[in-house]
Automatic annotation (TrEMBL):
SUPFAM superfamilies: Dimeric alpha+beta barrel, Winged helix' DNA-binding domain. Transmembrane segments: none annotated. Signal peptide: none annotated. Residues 1-62 form the HTH asnC-type domain. This is Lrp/AsnC family transcriptional regulator. SMART domains: HTH_ASNC. It comes from the Bacteria. Gene3D superfamilies: 3.30.70.920, Winged helix-like DNA-binding domain superfamily/Winged helix DNA-binding domain. Keywords: DNA-binding, Transcription, Transcription regulation. The lineage of its organism: Bacteria, Pseudomonadati, Pseudomonadota, Alphaproteobacteria, Rhodobacterales.
Amino acid sequence: MDALDRRIIASLQRDGRMSVTDLADEIGLSPTPCARRIARLEAEGIIRGYGARIDQNAVGLPVSVFIWVELETQSKEAVDAFERAVRGFDRVMECHLMTGSRDILLRVVAADLADFDRFLEERLMRVPGIRALRSSFALRTMVARAALPVA
């Protein structure tokens, strides 16, 4: 990946709907080589897809909860089973396998406290192999970036 690829990625992170012509003008290439570079970046999995960034408050999911999960065992099978289970939960926005005393960190969205309670009782607490859960509610998001610092 060279400097032009990084500039393409940086521009597309700012505006994924940008036309190839506008992108080519912005980075100083003609459209055909620019399109070829984009196709290569997509084929190599560097660009994994395109999508809209949605305001979670505007769609009625203003509550963000971070949940530390401690598993009963940290075997590959237990971690894989947990991962399979939470992949099916649309409220789980992120799931990270962590180092340290707690095994997994989740970021979950909810409409309100009652909605979060239903998610816990009806979904997460029914996943086998969980030893302990600890939740923290985000009061406000101070920094949230979708764009990686590639340029």
